[in-house]
Task: structure prediction
Amino acid sequence: MSSPTGHKSPMSAATASGAARSKTGRQPVAIFTWGFGGGAFTNLAVALARGILGADGGPVDLLYLWAGPDESVEVPAAARLVPLNASRAATAPLALLRYLRRERPRMLITMPTIVTLPALLGYRFSGRHVRQKTQFIVYQGDTLRSDIAIEHAGSLRLRTVPFLAKRLFPWADALTTCSPGVLELLKQDDMPLPNRVQVIANPVDVDACRRNAATHRPSHPWIADKAGPVITTLGRLVKRKNHPMMLRALSDIRRTGLDARLVIIGQGPELESARNVAAQLGVTASVSFAGFLPNPLADIARSDLFVMSSIDEAFCLALVEAMACGVPVVSTDAIGGGPRFILTGEGGSVVPATEDAEVLRTALVPHDNDAALAAALYRVLIDADLRSRLAAASRRRADDFSPAVIGRQWLTFFDSLTG
Result:
């Protein structure tokens, strides 16, 4: 039974998954995250399921605490949604233990860390007969200590997470990180790691990004009725995204006489702080805090430039989404190395073609240099040829992160664990 929007309900997804399971005779790959109400980890888990299924690595179970997908989340029809009915991550171990004993998935992938830690407890106490059948894979998609220091320094509970990770991560069979920089940070923090470790980029549904961009009109008036260059950005207004840096860069650009404007798409606790910075810089009239947009890629795709000014990025889904739409991009070389990995491929298995790597490297600037960010943005905005080459290179590079490509990398990793 489909919903009115055409998305599969949990009941129909479970039925489809059961049919696929009976045909393949394989135990499922289970992906466990906190929920499917939207956001980066929703997109990641769904895209990973699509990639594994597309590479014939299914069936796939999508486990979550209690928040199921809303109508905006396109769960693959062949993926089975499995609610654990746990109110929060800390109460999940017992429910997960019951699932593991019942279903015996051949792989269990968990994300983010706040979910992984209780999941490891459930796995540990599921029994040896379960652990012999199921490989536990920690997906590490954040910078852990760095992210907590920037965003959650005042939270005693979250400051204990690295301490717990050091004690629980060795219980896993394997660990993947979404960029080489994250793996390097784990090593610098003396994190005990499982024997099997692999860097696998996040999957991004680039085809869906392009469809959304092409089939919806931009909703922001500065983009729908453009009167000058418009820069866009997408992400929560939190400290690590460092919106003040891009506001200072905008101020520098406007002082050159270029009438550029900035549309900030997203919400978050740093909104008022960012508004205050814009007022202090005298750029309030040139900045739009657009908040939530139902189809942000329609606006981003028709902007002149997309920017990220983060201090810390383990990956950066929004950056790849913009690149998929053929938008020129500029990003800081954030702690965690996500943007560097995306733009240059350093340390990964798939790197851009030589001519693309050259132009994409120009889009990367230090995360602590306001002048360099302003100069890079200005250069792209005034140089039509550079803008065109960067847009084309970005679009081609985004294909390297499609679910089909990343799904095959995951299947190769699975084979290495069981071979």
